[in-house]
Amino acid sequence: MKTKTKVVLSFVTLFVLGFATGYMFSNAITPSINESKESGFEQTESRDQRQRGSRDTPDERQADRWRDRFSNFFDLTEAQKDPFFEHFSEYRSNIRSSMRNMRERENEQVLQHYNDLRHDLENVLNPGQLEKLETHLHPDSVKNHHSRRQRRGR
Fold first, then answer.
1. pTM > 0.70: yes or no
2. If 0-12 CB within 10 Å is exposed, 13-18 middle and 19+ buried, where does residue 81 land?
3. Nearest one of 113, 140, 136 to 125, comparing CA atoms
4. pLDDT tens for residues 19-41?
5. 145, 132 Cβ separation under 8 angstroms
6. 149 phi and psi angles, rounded to 5 deg
7. CA 29 vs CA 15, 22, 24, 32: distances in Å
8. Counting Cβ atoms within 10 Å, is residue 90 exposed (0-12), middle (13-18) or buried (19+)?
9. Which residues make Cβ contacts (< 8 Å) with residue 31, sequence separation at least 6?
10. Alpha helices, DSSP H, located in the chain
11. On the CB side of 111, how many CA atoms lie within 13 Å of its CA?
């Protein structure tokens, strides 16, 4: 058998095995429609969804699905839903804000350490070397180099 034939056969075999494995895992995680009907579990449109009408954007539909999942998971009554989701939304907003603030403080610290390094190296490196230092180690240039590498596929 030729090498090229072996490569093609191994590729096809891996593809088929990957497909079969994915199919089996997806069925193991998500029961099929027939199984869910037999077990008495049918997904029906919730009353909230009917009241809100159909949503246009995927984000709104996803928010509705999460709202329904949380409502079902916690067995929320109609009176509990609005306060729960108001507090939950505020919680998520606070977390995002805290994470943004931490990233900003971290970036400030990295820049401060870089400036200290640059100041220490001014007596060691010549102007050309300092310029190379700026283009390759400055925190902003490192981010730019990293994003360029990702776009090129490295």
1. no
2. middle
3. 136
4. 777 777 665 555 544 444 444 44
5. no
6. -65, -40
7. 21, 11, 9, 9
8. exposed
9. 39, 41
10. 3-29, 33-38, 47-52, 58-74, 78-121, 127-137, 139-152
11. 9
